TrEMBL record:
It comes from Streptomyces viridosporus T7A. This is Uncharacterized protein.
């Protein structure tokens, strides 16, 4: 069980670094808002984070 938690944490940190590298500080803010919204079960915060991420993805395409 601890091994799985370490692997998941490493993947989360890696994804966070990828988002920051590709989309800058706004990507990190959106990712954090989405994560906090999901963990707190707050649809407003999660929705804001998701919308920002979608806008960043649409902009780069």
């Amino acid at each position: 069980m601890p091994f799985i938690a370490v692997v998941l944490a490493a993947l989360a940190v890696g994804f966070e670094q990828l988002v920051q590298w590709k989309y800058g500080p706004m990507g990190i803010i959106a990712f954090v808002a989405l994560t906090v919204g999901i963990k707190a079960r707050n649809t407003a915060i999660g929705g804001i984070g998701a919308v920002i991420l979608v806008m960043l993805l649409a902009q780069s395409g």
